[in-house]
Write a structure and sequence with these properties.
Strand content of chain B: under 5%
Structural class of chain A: alpha/beta
Order of helices and strands of chain B: HHHH
Number of domains of chain A: 1
Shape of chain A: globular
Strand order of the largest sheet of chain A: 3-2-1-4-6-5-7
Radius of gyration of chain A: 16 Å
CATH architecture of chain A: Alpha-Beta Complex
Oligomer: heterodimer
Number of strands of chain B: 0
Helix content of chain A: 40-55%
CATH superfamily of chain A: Spore Coat Polysaccharide Biosynthesis Protein SpsA, Chain A
Largest sheet of chain A: 7 strands, mixed
Structural class of chain B: mainly alpha
Radius of gyration of chain B: 27 Å
Number of strands of chain A: 7
Distance between the termini of chain B: 81 Å
Strand content of chain A: 5-15%
Shape of chain B: elongated
Largest interface: A-B, 15 and 10 residues
């Protein structure tokens, strides 16, 4: 069984090495691929120097385009399982085996690593929590399925979902919208309890002003998705 | 009502614009596909300006008092249509660029991997 970890990276010089090392140590049965989305720092140099597997995007595509590159790569190399994680060290890859077990045993199309099932570890900051809760309720309202952590970027997909994401994936802040897409197609999406850490270094890609724009955009996108 | 002077000026301006567009298409600076809408709008505006009766009739029917306003209104509507067509084109172009960047990055990795294998095997065999 071929399994792939997708690591989108934009200016992650502080985190990329430890993230890859952790995968090699904690999940040696997984291949990984870094997608360098035109980092302006020396992320690419570090990757090249260490000889890590990387897809180097010639133009900046944003988080959605970068993650999709990973799914596209997984699709063209016939991976059975692909899991996306953040490069900033938030996601603990020792959970991969539990998520994999969940995916295979329950025959899921996607398993989301959720920090709100056991409510342990880093629970995200106040305002962001409100946003996450909002999407939780919005998805439930529209699709009647409860996703406690719809913005989690820690998600494992089977072959069917890999093909779907390779073909079409939202641009920015893609998690809730792509989950909505799976739910509309009646795909089986379930969650696995994980503990997330605070990001090790660098800055989050989502600033305050942008989150307002994203809230609006993603809400609209999800509602449109419901009526496709 | 519309004076002959403004009528002539508008027609000349529209004709110049039309020639300019066609000339740029001829020189392959514009793609005909994307300027068809421009040409169509331009021609319709020329016809309407040249035959004020149509405008007068349409303006009266719509309840617009001055036919001149009718021309402005039409020009405005056409501009909105043109800008919208541009937005559609940009969306399509963005999707294409995105896919190309992704394919390119994957192809680049394949080349790198092949080069590495080639170095290791000394060029004897690159087949897996």
């Amino acid at each position: 069984m071929k399994k792939l970890v997708i690591i989108p990276a934009y200016n992650e010089k502080d985190n990329i090495i430890s993230t890859v090392k952790e995968i090699e140590k904690e999940a040696p049965d997984y291949d990984y691929i870094i997608i360098n989305d035109c980092s302006t720092d020396n992320t690419l140099d570090l990757i090249r120097y260490n000889g890590y597997d990387v897809l180097n995007l010639p133009v900046n595509l944003g988080i959605g385009g970068a993650v999709q590159t990973g799914y596209f790569y997984a699709y063209s190399h016939h991976y059975d399982i692909a899991v996306q994680i953040d490069a900033d060290g938030q996601h603990d890859v020792s959970y991969l085996s539990a998520m994999e077990k969940h995916l295979l045993e329950n025959n899921c199309d996607m398993v989301i690593g959720s920090r709100f099932i056991d409510k342990k570890g880093f629970q995200s900051s106040g305002l962001r929590r409100i946003g996450i809760n909002f999407f939780n309720h919005l998805l439930f309202l529209l699709f009647r399925i409860r996703i406690t952590d719809p913005t989690s970027g820690f998600r494992m997909c089977n072959q069917r979902t890999i093909a779907m994401f390779a073909n079409e994936y939202p641009r920015d802040y893609p998690e809730p919208e792509s989950t909505a897409r799976l739910l509309r197609h009646k795909r089986k999406v379930e969650e696995e309890a994980v503990i997330m850490r605070k990001r090790r270094g660098g800055v989050s890609s989502i600033s305050m002003m942008r989150s307002v724009y994203y809230m609006f955009k993603v809400t609209l996108a999800i509602i449109i998705e419901r009526f496709r | 009502m519309m004076s002959f002077r403004i009528q002539a000026m508008i027609i000349v301006a529209l004709a110049v614009l039309l020639l300019l567009i066609l000339n740029m298409v001829r020189k392959r600076k514009l793609e005909l596909k994307y300027v068809l809408a421009w040409i169509l709008c331009d021609v319709i505006l020329i016809i309407m300006t040249a035959t004020p009766e149509i405008i007068d009739y349409a303006a009266e029917w719509l309840g617009i008092f001055d036919p001149m306003n009718m021309i402005f209104f039409l020009g405005f509507v056409f501009l909105i249509i043109l800008v919208f067509i541009l937005t559609v084109s940009i969306s399509r172009a963005t999707a294409k660029i995105r896919r190309m960047a992704q394919v390119l990055s994957i192809a680049e990795k394949r080349i790198e991997d092949l080069e590495t294998t080639l170095k290791e095997t000394g060029g004897k065999s690159v087949q897996e």
